Amino acid sequence: MFGFGQDIGIDLGTATVIAYVKGKGIVLREPSVVAVDKNSGDVLAVGQEARRMLGRTPGNIIATRPLRDGVISDYTVTEKMLKYFINKVCGKFIFAPRIMICIPSQVTEVEKRAVIDAASQAGARKVYLIEEPIAAAIGAGIDISKPCGNMIVDIGGGTTDIAVISLGGSVVSTSLKVAGDKLDEAIVKYIKRKHNIMIGERTAEDLKINIGCVYPKIQDVEMDIRGRDLSTGLPKTITVYSSEMLEALIEPAMMIVDAVHSVLEKTPPELSSDISDRGIYMTGGGCLVDGLDKLLQEKTGINVMIAEDAISCVALGTGKALDNLDALDGKTRK
Questions:
Q1: Is 74 helix (H, G, I), strand (E, B) or coil?
Q2: Quick count: other Cβ atoms within 10 Å of Cβ 164?
Q3: Alpha-carbon Rg of the chain, whole angstroms?
Q4: Residue 37 included in any domain
């Protein structure tokens, strides 16, 4: 029966789900948002279509993100979302696929169980789990099987995973719930405090992507946004500058830098010297915030590199790990 079903690697992210199919590469990249009818419990839309509904739905429809901080917060919705994505990737399959899913490095057994159950209910024949930083390292093209230390900082939507990897496993790792979403939240709070204007998550994300920075820019960039003026209650357009974004984002960014620092402190000296030679690799969509690599480099004194296809690294790594599934069968079965 081997080889009949497809092997799928899924980066089940808080913000985006990316699926990799063996032999085809990345076949799906959709926001992890689901729109559900509150009365009947039916799923109305998943992914891109549902993301457009965020913050714009009538009373009986809720557009939610079933994963929060890298773990499943709404089990039934996650299961439905996985089912939808698996069907979209496989079409009508005769044999159930084997699926490998990434999880943050510090999840509990209960949280792991929830991921395995959700994927099995969604139609997987067998579910494997892989830690995000390890998948990210493989996806960044690092040979993790060698006995030398590599440091990975994977900043996703819900969690930042930091790990020092050697001989195929993580030696020291930490996972913190400060990542893309927290940066968006920081922007919402800042705009509210400074301009007395309320903006939504999506506007905050647009600001972060277009003019967000955590290291002073040579030239100040600006962007116009619309929000609700809290004093009048009416819509209002304002201009926001990247220097303001720096003020808004520096606090969460420093939390990430501090976490990297504490992982470095716990790293065995032999591996520390490897890291100072090889540098720190950053992956995940969150690492693309302007200047984060410069900030980390300045604070640690170690060369920082952003991986080539940073957003897809984890999914690509999961996909490459699929090639060794048969070898893994004995090893990582939880």
A1: coil
A2: 23
A3: 21
A4: yes
